[in-house]
Amino acid sequence: MLFTACNEDKLGISNGNIPEGGQIHRFTQLTDANYEEFLAKTPGLILMDFYADWCGPCRMMDPEMVKLKSKMGDKIEIVKIDVDKNPAASQKFKVRGIPALFLYKDGELKDAGTGYRSEEQLFAFVSKWLDKEETNKEKETDKKETEEEKE
């Protein structure tokens, strides 16, 4: 299976600027053997990230996902699938470039995309699938945090 190599020079990073192993492994790791059952049995929002340890943008996005998880808490489950160790899942999802994101809600694929995203971009990617009440609460929290930072 071919994967688009991450263009680290374009992003102004190199492996020397990212700790060995990055911060990739903070989230639940899914495999070829368990991803289908996980998606079928886990309610709510699931953000699935196909990545590789050697991919600079994948490593850069991990802290952004940590921020997203911190912001959203139990409203989202973030999981990762290593493309090098799980070729069947990568093939089923037709992953051609990484990082590749797939967003599920209650077992149904809602959105997908490829490439690095900041925490703000990740939030925009997933928030449209939150219930309206939850989205309004998130906006109020962001507004309060912004006001506190200005003080």
CATH architecture: 3-Layer(aba) Sandwich
Alpha carbon gap, first and last residue? 52 Å
Number of E strands:
5
Number of domains: 1
Q: Give unreliable regions as ranges.
A: 1-25
The percentage helix is: 40-55%
Description:
By secondary structure, the protein is of the alpha/beta class. The chain contains 6 helices and 5 strands, in the order αβαβαβαββαα. It has helices at residues 8-11, 35-41, 56-72, 87-92, 119-127, 132-150, and strands at 28-29, 45-51, 76-82, 100-105, 108-114. A hairpin with a 2-residue loop joins strand 4 and strand 5 (108-114). Helix 3 (56-72) crosses helix 5 (119-127).
Features:
151 residues; alpha/beta; Glutaredoxin; 6 helices; 41% helix
Short précis:
By secondary structure, the chain is an alpha/beta fold.
Q: How would you summarize the topology of this molecule?
A:
Layout: H1 8-11, E1 28-29, H2 35-41, E2 45-51, H3 56-72, E3 76-82, H4 87-92, E4 100-105, E5 108-114, H5 119-127, H6 132-150
Parallel strand pairs: 1-3, 2-3
Antiparallel strand pairs: 2-4, 4-5
Helix pairs in contact: 3-5
